Amino acid sequence: MVLFDDRRHAGILLAKELEAFRGNPAAVILALPRGGVVVGHELSLALHLPLDVFITRKIGLPECPEYAIGAVSETGSVYLNPDAAGTVPREDIAGLVEAQRHEIARRQTLYRQGKPLPSLHNKTVIVVDDGIATGSTFFATIEALRTLAPDRIIAAIPVSPPSTAAKVRALVDHSVILATPEFFGAVGEFYVNFQQVEDEDVVRCLEQAEQVYRTRPCDVR
């Protein structure tokens, strides 16, 4: 089942479902890099909302990096999948977490160019990714964002397995999940074009979104 032409298409469809937030001065879009930034870019353009990243890194098994046992966020919080992390010694997990923290620091410098994460106090935060499978990265993000005292957290996700979608809905104040197919192997299965997003793509999306947000008047409908 193919649902989206590419990440831009997914972002356009999400924006239609989030029209009520267009031009909201208290709202901000936080995208999970890398793929979520392309989706978030389209949301930013369509809804006239500022776009930033929230950097959370998956903790994968050394012998199988794609298998997530948890995730670590840029605020330092660590989420461990209770069904998977128990099979890995604690000292091994500590080493995996530290490695991801180095990568988080690299991305913070590159993507924000020295600027801090904006204040989220009393904000409506729209958290977007290009899709979720186990949800470890997304759950770690939501857990970390709650400590920053936003007013509301909105999940914007193109596709998710039904069980993961149910967990997301229980954690956030509102959610838009476009599709929850029963048979779910990987996020990329639901896109015609799911090519790798590179660091330079992320930087370009962020710069373009900022320029448009600052220079184009909001057409509030």
TrEMBL record:
Keyword tags: Glycosyltransferase, Transferase
Keyword Metal-binding listed: no
ATP-binding found in the keyword field: no
Protein known as: Putative Phosphoribosyltransferase
Pfam families: Pribosyltran
Single GO term (MF): glycosyltransferase activity
Highest taxon above the source species: Bacteria
Residue ranges annotated for the Phosphoribosyltransferase domain, each copy included: 13-188
InterPro entries xrefs: PRTase-like (IPR029057), PRTase_dom (IPR000836)
